Automatic annotation (TrEMBL):
Domain of life, source organism: Bacteria
Name the UniProt record assigns to this protein: Solute-binding protein family 3/N-terminal domain-containing protein
Organism placement in taxonomy: Bacteria, Pseudomonadati, Thermodesulfobacteriota, Desulfovibrionia, Desulfovibrionales
Amino acid sequence: MQTIAKERISIAGNTSTEYNYQKLIEYRGGDPLSISDYSSPYSSRPAISLLLLRQALHLGGIDADFVYISCPNPGRSLAEVKKGHAIVYSSDMWEQDFDDSVYKTSPIIRRGEFQKGIYVKKGSPLLTSTNVEDDLKNKIPLVEHTWTIDIALLKSFGFKDMQTAPKYDLLFKMINRNRADFTILEFPRTNDLTLQDKTGDLYPIPNAKIVLPYSRHFMVSKINPQGKRVYEALEKGLEILRKNGTIERALRQSGVINDKVKNWKIAFKQGK
């Protein structure tokens, strides 16, 4: 039997990712390496991403003992990895976030696979829209202020005026208080695709989705002395997980690739 090296791996990320990851493992029996069904109440994209990271490292020859470095926002987490304080970011990252200080693994989410819904408050006239692009032309979008990819994409669609929220949770409150008309968010695993929050739920405009035409990857520090070994182990493991269909199955079972919106029309299609 092959001996797998036990290794402490520092992970930068937020506490909710760590919580959902631990609850997901518990829900699925307690052993992250034996999980093959990725559906659960805790299967957020970051949690699934972290689980795939753990499984890929094992397949690449590292039995990882994660050490969490909790950060208040993605920007701080990125800085921890790029400075070498953490070996790897806890979740997949946009390809644009990488520079020469880090390794970029093969993609977890390939170009065209990452889709978002156009979310509005209950009772919004946009929920009955039959021509989404025209009806949104003079509306104000709301974006979390660190989501630079979303901001750039909305600008490319022609939205010059937009509101920003200092954190994700405030998106719900601000939309429901009419600070903006809509926001673009990942589809949840719920049957009706509603996003629930105590300050007010948000609802997707039916039959309309936005495709973000970029890929997402794991980010590994080049500065940290363990970085090269971790990167090489990840690449080996991810190749196996991609070839045997595990990555696609995980993305579908967790709702990252959401079959409920498979036939929805793409709004603001690139290059048309």
